[in-house]
Amino acid sequence: MSATSATAHAHVEHHELGFLRTYVFSTDHKMIGRQFLFLGLLMMILGGALALVVRWQLAWPETPVPGLGLILRETGGILEPSTYNMAFTMHATIMIFFVVMPILAGGFGNFLIPLMIGARDMAFPFLNMLSFWVAVVAGILMLAGFFVEGGHAAAGWTSYAPLAAVPEYTGVNWGQNLWCISLFILGVSSMMGSINYITTIINMRAPGMKLFRMPLVIWSLFITAVLLLLALPVLTSGVAMLLFDRWLGTSWFRPSGGGEPLLWQHLFWYFGHPEVYILILPAMGIGSEILPVFARKPIFGYHAMAFSMIAIAFLSWIVYGHHMFVSGMNPALGMAFTVTTMIIAVPSAIKTFNWLGTLWGGRIRLTVPMLNALAFVSMFVIGGLSGIFMASTPVDIYIQDTYYIVAHIHYVVFGGSIFGAFAGIYYWFPKMFGRMTSPVLGQLHFWPTFFFFNLTFFPMHILGVGGHMRRIYNPMQYEFLQPLQWWNVLITIGAIGLGIAQIPFVINFFWSLFAGRKAPVNPWNATTLEWTAPSPPPHLNWGPTLPTVYRGPYEYSAPESTDDFLPQTTPPVARAGARRH
Amino acid sequence: MLDWWLPENVSTYGKDIDRLFHLIYYITGATLVLVTVVLVAFLWVYRDRPGRRARYTHGSTPLEIVWTVVPALILVLLTMLSVPAWSKIKMTQPDTDFIVQVTAKQFNWQFTYPGPDGRFGTADDTTLLDEMHVPVNKVVRVLLRSQDVIHSFFVPQFRMKQDTVPGREIPQWFEATKPGKYELPCAELCGFGHSGMRAWIYVHTPEEYAAWAAATLTAKASTAGDEKKGEPEREEKTKR
Amino acid sequence: MTTALVEPPGVPRPVRGLHIPPPPRDGGDDDEDRGPAPQRPILDNVRLAMIFLISGEIMFFGGLISAFLVLRVSAAAWPPPLQPRLPIAVTGLNTLVLLASSGTMLAAGRALRRGDRAALVRRLLATAALGAVFLLVQGYEWTRLVSFGLTLSSGVYGATFYTLIGAHAAHVVGALVWLAAVLALAARGRFVDGAAGPLRACAMYWHFVVALWPILYVAVYLA
Ligand code: HEA
Ligand code: HEA
Ligand code: CUA
Ligand SMILES: [Cu+2]
After folding, report:
1. Distance, CA A316 to ligand 4 centroid (Å)?
2. Which of A322, A325, A326, A461 most suits a substitution to test ligand 1, by most atoms within 8 Å of the C-beta?
3. CB of B151 shorter than 6 A to ligand 3
4. Domain annotation for chain C: domains and CATH numbers
5. pLDDT tens, A66-78?
6. Distance of CA A507 to the CA centre of its chain
7. Most buried residue, A38, A49, A110, B40, by CB count within 10 Å?
């Protein structure tokens, strides 16, 4: 696109870009990355608030939710069953599509890719800007659903047909339509973003930045982008069909017209399973970036780490049926999906043990980013191990659609992705905003979050084993769940604590943004390229020359140097060129 | 406590599931302990101390092979152990003459008994709302259907779950081993009444069941149609 | 040890090569592991991006087509009784029209390589015209089918037909709009000077849209 290079020209020549072009319609990958980060954090407040509403109802069913009386005037703040369904549906939709994806893939992807491969910007800066604003449009449409008659989508984030395909079944009309439209548009945005990422990583690496010299976080973002590129269009086609069923009277998923309800599940999970790895892979990358830095050691088994992510990406296409073991799908298929699901745990095992290997013999400093990265590793392991129960088909018969699944979800997405995101935010904050965060507030955020996270989500395993169904409005309606109710109360207290524990984070974030200590170029003594650019990096990232890469990304404590790190840009000592030709 | 919060199991195949559950529980529990202990130990032993330098290593192929192969073997084992139970529960239908048609709809369970003639869709069918009666120690086949959206037939104590899909009839089976009254919640989100969509399953001793059947099923049949001849036949059936 | 390269921000030199990194500078390659990576991309950014765009689109249509096949295979009778038949012959001819447009697009590419601006514009125009003819015929057939009573809401038959063919038609419309923009630029003398990225991208997309059609034709009309 020569239009884009023209834009680049304009940028260089008139260095003073107006407010609008710098902060709003910026084509600078770093600004777009920050914008995605803010979008995600903002939406997290809403997603978290919805979670707390859900929790309140579960602990103290049908009592007024504090503060909700202002919104739900007719009921005085008491949730109705349909409102409850809407609350968890939108909680999950927002958390997955508008929190974790924007922060990890959108925020870190945009900010880090050019900086860490030594490029001046993305391959298509204008497209990049477009992808953010299209995502914003999708977000606005999603939020609009809260204000339409009949309420927002209430068929779960999975929106199973025919419940979601026929308005009469839920009583939700435009809410669900907007849900479909918003995700359709988000699919377009993600397509623009992922094409950009892939092209940039393939074509725009700095001299010397061979594929196997790329930091693992870039590998993870690259693989994530490939998954996004190939998985989201399937959802896009699915929501289009769902929308047509609701709107135009087609019968893709409606049995009354000859359609097939399970078809939706196949399409959804064909997207949905790669999606969960889209959520975790960037966090794995961030973890692999931070552990070496604060253990002052090269990552253990770099190639294995990269290849295991590739393996996860491949396998993620053939395991999706594990969400449908008891759906009525042919049970022989269920058996096949067990096999593949078990296999996909192997690359995760490799990663876990390699992270431990990275710590072995290190010089470990428990900084705030490191603490969050370690929490990521240990919590991801718990979430992954609970996945093994579900991978075993007979056990899944029992625990499917119980809180065991809810526990699994949150250990992997909160314990995994969100801790990964926190780690990344603390680690790259100096580069992103040019200021250091406060370690005291950081610790004050980490420890309560870690504690309350486990208090909230660990007991959910126990509830699930006790048979507690998910997506129920009032557990007290079931005799066999009544003795378990006190767990629900405990969990809700944990969840409230978890919400409060985020206050130091918000304070830290904004305080550091404006008043934090000015960040040096390389505050953590790290080796990767982004730490050779000023903090924050200027437009086009580096001065007149791009960095040249001479070595792998994790040269910590190498005997070659007295320092304990060798930046990727350090030329090899003395012997350079000696053996050439 | 030792049942690890699992509700009491009262079905024949439930113990297969529980056994697998416990096995996985021990394997994953051991893995978790291993990982956590190693992690915490490393954090302590290799904490930053002045004058120390980290070990410079890029990995170890033998080690990496070990921790690829060992989990892989464990997982293969788990897969192989999962397959028989799965095929027993979901892929085979034991012979039985006790068949009940279960129809889910927003937000109720309907149970249709074939009546004395043993066939569905005849005048002597009896349909019960939100309650089901079965004899103990007898294979029961349920034919799961749905009138509107997807529901899920879930009996925690039986370790049984199966979605009902509109437009299909899915046969499933169970055999209860202990008389009692068990809750049957709907486990798949099916609309605003999903929570509270619940039925009761009464598992009777054979005698109790015969009495109940005589009072409910055959009585119903005799008022509905005039096929009184079916009665003794029925009696035989329920007594196995 | 921290080697410089942390030059002051300054005003960087304008970078034309924003999408093509500069050739590697030498140095620092004393062994395999440390060799420089010559970074002459095999494909330029635009073409690479188009390949990925097209693979995403293939997944989109893959979703639609496999959903269609699932419904089709499980249907008792196809086409369902009392539903109008699809116009196989007319659409077959129309397929040829669309395929021809790919031919003219290829010819346009040859004109571009020769630097023949007039021929380029002419052939792009022909491509666009063929595409438009295809759309018009499709639209006409649709109105006829609707008048015979086949609509989106007449069961899976109507639903799948209009969704699949409509999704393709929407893509043709999109490609046509893109082509029109490229055509306008070409008429003003762009592309023949060598910076033909947008044109090449458009051509790739056009070929994709054309190549998709026979698959749909076979799946929906013939099979
Ligand atoms: C980030 C997201 C994420 C991740 C990474 C995963 C990872 C895994 N998930 Fe999970 N999953 C979800 C998000 C995720 N999942 C969500 C959101 C749902 C619910 C959707 C819904 O219904 O709403 C779900 C549901 C879900 C189900 C369906 C349950 C049901 O509805 O009945 C299953 C079934 O097999 C499953 C399995 C797995 C497995 C085997 C892994 C594996 O990849 C895990 C691998 C990791 C490990 C195993 C730990 C580390 C390894 C070791 C320490 C080595 C040693 C281990 C052994 C020897 C066992 N997941
Ligand atoms: C990324 C995904 C994600 C995240 C982060 C969370 C976070 C939380 N989730 Fe959720 N959840 C899901 C994904 C997620 N969840 C999914 C997929 C489902 C399944 C839905 C379905 O069945 O369809 C689900 C379902 C689900 C249920 C089950 C509902 C049911 O089945 O009936 C429950 C119940 O307890 C729950 C609770 C919580 C809680 C208490 C949190 C807490 O951790 C939230 C704590 C966070 C906050 C209180 C916000 C704090 C604010 C900030 C950090 C912002 C900082 C801002 C600035 C600096 C500007 N979730
Ligand atoms: Cu029926 Cu839930
Ligand atoms: Cu999955």
Report:
1. 8
2. A322
3. yes
4. 45-78+88-222 (1.20.120.80)
5. 988 888 888 888 9
6. 22
7. A110
A56/A88 Cα distance (integer angstroms): 12
For C182, the closest chain A residue by CA position comes to A1
At C40, is the pLDDT very low, low, confident or very high (cuts 50, 70, 90)? low
**Which ligand neighbours the alpha carbon of A52 most closely?**
2
Tens digits of per-residue pLDDT, C172-214?
999 999 999 999 999 888 887 778 888 999 999 999 999 999 9
pLDDT at C85: 83
Instruction: Note whether A577 contacts B: Cβ–Cβ < 8 A.
Output: no
Q: How many helices (H) and strands (E) does chain B have?
A: 5, 10
Which stretch of DSSP H or E encloses residue B170? strand B170-175
Q: Hey, is the C-beta of B172 within 8 angstroms of any chain A C-beta?
A: no
Does residue B128 contact residue B142 with C-beta atoms inside 8 Å? no
Pick the atom of ligand 3 nearest to B186's CA: 2
Q: Which residues of B51-73 are buried (b: 16+ CB within 10 A; e: fewer)?
A: eeebebeebeeeebeebbeebbe
Confidence at A286, pLDDT banded by 50, 70, 90: very high
| Ion ligand 4 nearby residues (CB, 5 A) | A 273
Ligand 2 near A50 CB (within 6 A): no
- Backbone phi, then psi, for B56, in 5-degree steps? -95, 100
Q: How far is C130 from chain A (nearest CA, A)?
A: 26
3-state SS record for B175-212: EECCCEEEEEEECCCCCCCCCCCEEEEEEECHHHHHHH
Length of chain B: 240
Contact residues on chain B for A557, CB-CB shorter than 8 A: 53-56
In sign, the C-alpha dihedral spanning A113, A119, A120, A124 is: negative
Q: At what angle do helices A216-247 and A174-203 cross, to 10 degrees?
A: 150
B36 CB near ligand 1 (under 6 Å): no
Ligand 2 and A100: CB distance under 6 A: yes
For residues C156 and C133, what is the distance between their CA atoms, to the nearest angstrom? Answer: 28
In terms of Cβ atoms closer than 10 Å to its own Cβ (0-12, 13-18, 19+), residue A29 is buried
Q: How far is the CA of A280 from the centre of ligand 4 (A)?
A: 12
C2 neighbourhood in chain A, CB within 8 Å: 522, 563, 567, 570
In this model, does residue C12 exceed pLDDT 90? no
- Which ligand 3 atom sits closest to the C-alpha of B194? 2
Alpha-carbon distances of C157 from A33, B91, C95, C151, C169, rounded to whole Å: 45, 33, 21, 9, 18
**Residues B198 and A482: beta-carbon distance below 8 Å:** no
Residue of B nearest to A387 (CA): B28
Domains of chain B: 7-91 (1.10.287.90), 99-237 (2.60.40.420)
Q: How far apart are CA B28 and CA B48, in angstroms?
A: 31
- Is A410 touching ligand 2 by the criterion CB < 6 Å? yes
Please indicate, yes or no, whether the overall pTM of this predicted structure exceeds 0.90: yes
- Examine the pLDDT at C15 and tell me if it is beyond 70: no
Overall average pLDDT of the C132-150 stretch: 92
Residue among A259, A241, B195, A528 at smallest CA distance from C75: A259
Q: Do A363 and B59 touch (CB under 8 A)?
A: no
Strand order in the sheet with B131-135: B131-135, B198-204, B180-185
CA of A277 to the centre of ligand 1 (A): 10
Domains and CATH numbers, chain A: 33-532 (1.20.210.10)
Do A569 and A550 contact (CB within 8 A), yes or no?
A: yes
CB A278 within 8 Å of CB A417: no
Distance from the Cα of residue A280 to its chain's centroid? 6
